[in-house]
Design a protein that fits this description.
Layout (H helix, E strand, L loop, with lengths): L6 E4 L5 H12 L9 H9 L3 E8 L2 E10 L3 E9 L8 H15 L4 E7 L3 H9 L3 E10 L3 E9 L10
Parallel strand pairs: 4-5
Antiparallel strand pairs: 1-2, 2-3, 3-4, 5-7, 6-7
Helix pairs in contact: 1-2
Length: 161
């Protein structure tokens, strides 16, 4: 399987239920389900969010949700189906969103990751994200999160900022 074979595009309202299931099964396991289809549909319809869908043969295999604020962006969700993990698809989704962030004139991207999820933390570190602080009890008071951030402008070549 190659991440290059996946089509990445803006998600549509009909994708909300599948994106929600990816979140429930891959990201929110054991925490309660907050990214239900209604919430995902609101994000898809909101001008303050970009919701991506990654498809292979019309099947949704990954998704990402980024919120765009005035001065910062927040990666709210990144989920990639197990057969497609470690293929570069997650990296493609994040890079697509980061390019959008720069186009919007925003520099800093924040995200939260489970404090105990060393694999996800390593993935984000590999993309240039750095730990900011530990958020005790962030997930429904049950589990802590590590807040991570990346200033995208710092990675741009001199003269392009």
């Amino acid at each position: 399987m190659s991440a290059a074979s996946a089509l990445i595009e803006l998600a549509h309202a009909v994708d909300a239920a599948q994106v929600a299931l990816l979140s429930r099964d891959l990201v929110e396991t054991g925490l309660g389900w907050s990214w239900r289809d209604q919430r995902v549909a609101r994000a898809i319809g909101s001008p303050d969010n970009v919701v991506l869908a990654a498809r292979v043969d019309q099947r949704l295999v990954g998704a990402a949700i980024m919120y765009f604020g005035q001065d910062e962006a927040r990666l709210n969700l990144l989920a990639v189906a197990p057969p497609w993990q470690r293929t570069g698809l997650g990296t493609r989704l994040v890079h697509w969103l980061e390019a959008s962030v720069l186009t919007a004139g925003v520099s800093v991207v924040y995200l939260e990751v489970r404090a105990g999820n060393a694999g996800a933390q390593a993935f984000y570190r590999g993309l240039g994200y750095r730990p900011v602080t530990l958020l005790q009890g962030y997930y429904q008071g049950r589990e802590s999160a590590l807040l991570m951030a990346r200033d995208l402008w710092l990675s741009l070549p001199a003269g392009t900022r």
